[in-house]
Design brief:
4 copies of one chain form a homotetramer. By secondary structure, chain A is of the alpha+beta class. Helix content of chain A is 27%, strand content 22%. Chain A is built from 8 helices and 18 strands. In chain A, strands 1-2-3-7-4 form a 5-stranded antiparallel beta sheet, covered by helices on one side. In chain A, strands 9-8-10-16-11 form a 5-stranded antiparallel beta sheet. In chain A, helix 1 crosses helix 3. Chain A is globular and about 65 Å long. The interface between A and B is large, with 111 and 112 residues.
């Protein structure tokens, strides 16, 4: 599988750069018969679109998606779905002063080392705009999962030192940060205002909860569901840690506390706790899947920074232009998209795990 | 790629169960010309072998590896290297009382859901013995990397609440826990003794530092080096979180602190700090790569636990048999092996990133 | 790897349907530094473009390609290259009478069986227009291979019963069939005129010769270079057989005749014959690679045919519309494109076969 | 996917050399619940075992297979099945005179070019013994397919110029060549006796017919079922051409003859002919799948041949030792095995092609 593709059975290939003509994705392996139009995808893209609050870059992009293939008379055909979003507000002049600098915290230096070459217009393929392809593809996965009763709840868990203290889903759309806690959102706003005043930036945590996933997804050993999720989430730029279930807290716990017991309720197997975050031995257990993505502070800041140019000259760099003081809120939908892609792929991969079910499938 | 394979160019496929005849691995894509014999692999396997301290299971296994193919006159041939370790001390009688129970914290229930079937003799494919294949393959990767000047320093960073306060590599082999801090190791021993007395178990953190990795490994977007490492590490049973560089601490930092500046030293590009952990934009930057694996407490404990049988009967389960009160020390070499496999694969995948280097390669 | 992708290191994903908005390809894994513009690709596309002689469909398509990503200042960046060709002359009305029929020799029935659904406008994804993505991607591969001194000579070897009796490359562009034999081309024209008069169609053979391929490409066992080529060529619609070197004739030969001896010429190893077609044990031997694709007669004919509708009604079908009486000439560039993709991928995959060369590569 | 693996969902990785300790295969992705023991596999291996007639090498190998993992209490567990066959009669002394020669028609030269190194004991990984892994894995696939009502009829279609003139399955096991025509088998024997007297060798054709394959397997474009079969078959050493259905004859036919009409019989869709060989547009149509593998004459012959040593000395080589004058009969089961692996993988890959069927699968 090539570097720009994700997934085995439900596979997405993304392309495009921050300051090129367009960005897009090809979704391959989507089953035939799913109702799909551009609005389904646009809803997801709008959640990551810039320019929606004072805490995001002022770059103006409608990020309108066009479906170029794979849908006929309102339904998917089983053939690859090609999606395109044209760039509009490229304004590459903004990046003039950084064209030959290695911006700290960015991939400028490493791209130059790898390719002997760098798209100096603003990150190119390593820009956050790259996530448009992920989100567009994830929207299709999420729509498909909804048909199977699988739903996502994704939100900002913390910004800098400010964490949520409750989880009220209805509050998520009511603040600039997609936080399920209005009071925490207020404090996060204050913290960010202070960061912006200091020409600095902040990080934070995105949490994602997935309900309705059937037990049995994921494979033992290398194809564990949590391993696939970890790759999916860590592949998002700026993510520096991934947790499943109790995550880092589990290391401080003891077996007797951390183990989830089993019981019977209404004739169904239930777990008496969910420290595992819905995955046991790499396989979904039917319970809520919980994961967290830890995101570093936005690297583009206006404060002067020590760096060098690609000619090796030492430089004191100030980055102007349009940058988010925190990318966490816009990363919420990206985390959800990557989780949706991963779960969909696992669902399809799992269909051949038992001979009896294969016989059932083909004997009809 | 199938569920039991890892890697694209340097690929390992593992097989075998805890209580089967044998376990093993097939390493495919190892270049011709590497000096290799069984001792190279045995050194790694001995680091995870049970029965070496009072803190590990008493199961007696020599874990002697045999090379079945791919090596001729002491050198690799470029063809697949098949490795086998025979099981000796299977003693499946030990598992009698848990044959029909879903052990809390184990994969019993999820395997049953996935396969309609479970190897009740002690975890089967989800047992920690599965890691033999990983470690054997990782030993080959590590030997190959050594030829390129790439080295690993891997150790226990914490057990339960006891963390190291310094990093003295020479102390690692001198305690039962592979801790680079003798005093922390003493405290960890006390903590574990208490756990064992309480019939309970502990978790902890493994840290891995990789030096000598050239800049340029890893790909933008889905094939980021940190994403591949996250998958590799999270695929190890009992790992619940993965961090790269500053990891979770980065979310509390600010851009001005978290960004690593660049400078020039002895005519070379250097970073003035390494919060990123050696990876920028998913591509290695030539600096030390740092990662941490967070490991949950051993699920097998002797304390009674509430669970059910596969017939749906509620049960109060006590697990006897031979279990590690903490698996962190034995996981050290597993983390190192998975990191070595990942780096090797990235090294090979990177060779075609630039046309000028491809022309050089083939023009000789 | 998903169904619409080809290649491991140099990978192409194609998308698009005959009567949709557009068709295209994403080329991933192209190294940085290759000079590339749209003209390089257009030259290839023009070789398969319809409407260029009386023997091809009259559908009017300029098939103008646009590069959307992966090229900056005239050079490839190492990031995915997205290519798009808009459909213009869709005229789906032409297909009205066949919308509900299973056309003999087409994929209508099998698509319906697989997807429960069919794009009745003219083949959709199974149309010959699908090859636009292959050819556009192959043009990039061919340009890259040229830098390494690898060249292709591809032509029509036969149409129906008319075969070439000599190989004069300079005659290839001078006839409607890309035949390297002007006299055979005349006879092929007569044969096709007769077929058209009878409202019938013809098949034929495409031959491809590849020079300059270094010895060593391809892997033992499943990744043999001839196996990869066979897949590449057989994946072209209408191909029913693939030969390498002497191919089917080899079965009638004897070992003493079919074996290629070795000798020394100008201090280089040479083969004294090339029955093998440049591949031994699945690995290139440095000699000319020779392959042949056998193509069935165009299935769309105006003669009445017995078939059924998707409602199960028996029908006598006459297909009108715009169809090629033979697709062989337009398949020439498709065969070349698929061969170029395969060789490029093998070149990159081969770079890690020897430790000494890896050490050289990274020690610079 | 690595060079020594085949298949995506039902994947086999093979390993081992002709003169090493053992050969084997790891089958990954086999569903849980298939009854399997060593006898099931041995039956297949016995069909390719040497020393069974005067027309095969006299090398004595029992080729006894041992199952090392993945089967518990007589049934597959869903985990990887590791298979091993120990080499016994290695007698590498036989190969003394060819240790430094590049044998014509063999992979000696190309291995040396690729790996800088060659296992001179008799082909190593490029020996026909490599097929043991394929056949062992294919036996499992074939057993699984039988549960779904899919069966294989594979036989020798021709040896040198001697072809079958009828297809009587019951005659296949009654002659040394697996020919379904006793009279042709007699003539083939005479032809081979003459070849052996002349110290020469012969080639031939294997034909495989697969019944019971449901319509819908295979994917459009690159994952066509015939493309996967072509790769599978061409990856067998000594195969130089692959045909599907009418194959090369199709190029001489016309559309009106070559198209398969549709009709209705007993309320089922039927084709009125099967020129396509059961595959339309790369997707199975429910009819018998027919393919042919064209196999070159055995390259090891006792007649003197011109070649060079790896030191570049010109040499007149006579190959002694134990060689088959024709490998076609022993290749019959190898072709069947590769076809079975391909069909099984396509069956599993196809399960997610339609949303309605996915909903059915998971809604139970």
């Amino acid at each position: 599988m090539s570097q720009s593709s994700f997934g085995r059975k439900f596979a997405v290939t993304t392309w495009g750069e921050s300051h090129g003509k367009a960005l897009g994705a090809v979704v391959d392996g989507c089953p035939a018969g799913l109702s799909l139009d551009e609005k389904d995808i646009q809803i997801f893209l709008n959640r990551r679109r810039p320019g929606q609050s004072r805490y995001t870059t002022a770059r103006q992009e409608g990020d309108q998606v066009e479906i170029l293939s794979g849908v006929f008379e309102g339904k998917t055909t089983g053939c690859p779905i090609s999606l395109i979003v044209r760039n509009k507000d490229q304004r590459s002049g903004d990046y003039g002063n950084i064209a030959f600098s290695y911006r700290p915290g960015h991939a400028d230096y490493t791209f130059d080392q790898k390719y002997g070459f760098r798209d100096y217009r603003g990150g190119g393929r390593s820009s956050g705009r790259e996530t448009i392809g992920r989100v567009a593809a994830g929207a299709i996965a999420a729509k498909l999962l909804k048909e199977l009763g699988i739903s996502f709840l994704t939100y900002t868990h913390s910004i800098g030192p400010v964490s949520i203290s409750h989880l009220h889903p209805e509050e998520i759309p009511n603040n600039d940060f997609y936080m399920p806690d209005a009071s925490a959102a207020d404090k996060a706003g204050e913290y960010l205002n202070q960061c912006m005043k200091e020409k600095d930036s902040a990080g934070g945590i995105v949490e994602c909860r997935i309900n309705g996933v059937p037990a049995g997804l994921g494979d033992p050993v290398f194809g564990k569901l949590d391993a696939e999720l970890a790759k999916a989430i860590m592949s998002i730029g700026a993510v520096k840690a991934v947790e499943i279930g109790d995550g880092i807290q589990a290391t401080l716990s003891k077996g007797s506390k951390n183990n989830d017991g089993f019981s019977i309720k209404n004739n169904c197997v239930v777990k008496t706790s969910n420290h595992s975050g819905g995955i046991m031995g790499g396989i979904s257990d039917g319970d809520e899947i919980i994961l967290r993505a830890h995101i570093k502070p936005t690297p583009s800041i206006s404060l002067p920074q020590n760096t060098i140019t690609n000619a090796g000259e030492i430089q004191n760099l100030e980055i102007y232009g349009r940058h988010d003081p925190v990318i966490v809120p816009r990363a919420v939908v990206v985390v959800e998209a990557m989780a949706a892609l991963t779960i969909t792929d696992a669902l399809f991969s799992n269909m051949s795990s038992r001979l009896d079910r294969i016989l059932d499938f083909y004997k009809k």
